[in-house]
Design brief:
binds uracil; about 210 residues; three-stranded parallel beta sheet; alpha/beta; 14 strands; seven-stranded mixed beta sheet; single chain; Rossmann fold; globular
């Protein structure tokens, strides 16, 4: 699974364990998700291209590194993707944000699109697609199919938990898209949930059922 990057940082792993615990409150879950997404964002942006800009410090002019290109675009797969946005926006406050609305057909487990809104001028932007759970990989693959039609400069996929099935599906359909996750879990169950997982990420972050 060559395009998979597991962020094996002790703080990430500790916070993830607290989130998996079924006794964690909605508020606690959301706070942890915010904290962990900031740490994941640090890793996913590690190789962002830099260019040099001339500035003046109080002592001397210098050529100093700044991020190259247009503003990054974060693409949230609704609704659970929004849980990852806040932490990332703390790290990249000027990022643009796109949304893709998909639901999973409970019979076929296939993803169906109901909403798509991206910033203007996507070409030359680096896109980071966010969704906490990479389960079957169908939603992620469809979201990236649609996103590619807007021609971003690069695409990465960031999630909290991944199942081997989802990683394989995404790697097959989009081998050019690196995947970043806090953990690779064991498998999917017959309902398409990640095991051991953490349950339904959207329900746990919003207190719904
Ligand atoms: N979506 C979730 O929220 N949880 C899973 O385990 C799989 C998909």
């Amino acid at each position: 699974m060559s395009n998979l990057n597991v962020v094996n940082h002790p703080l990430v792993q500790h916070k993830l364990t607290m989130m998996r615990d079924k006794s964690r409150s909605t508020g606690g879950f959301r706070r942890l998700l915010g904290e962990i997404s900031l740490l994941l964002a640090y890793e996913v942006t590690r190789d962002m291209p830099l260019t040099l800009e001339t500035i003046e410090t109080p002592l001397a002019p210098m050529q100093a590194p700044v991020l190259d290109g247009k503003k990054v675009v974060l693409v949230s797969i609704l609704r659970a993707g929004n849980g990852l946005l806040d932490g990332i926006l703390q790290l990249i406050p000027s990022a643009r944000v796109g949304h893709i609305g998909l639901y999973r057909d409970p019979e076929t487990l296939e993803a169906v699109e109901y909403y798509f809104k991206m910033p203007d001028n996507m070409n030359n932007r680096d896109a980071i697609v966010v969704d906490p759970m990479l389960a079957t990989g169908h939603s992620a693959a469809l979201a990236i199919d649609r996103l590619k039609q807007t021609n971003p400069r690069s695409i990465k996929f960031l999630c909290l938990l991944a199942a081997p099935e989802g990683v394989a599906h995404l790697a097959k359909h989009h081998p050019d898209v690196p995947i970043y996750t806090a953990a690779l879990d064991e498998k999917l169950n017959e309902h398409g949930y990640i095991v051991p997982g953490l349950g339904d990420a959207g329900d746990r972050m919003y207190g719904t059922r």
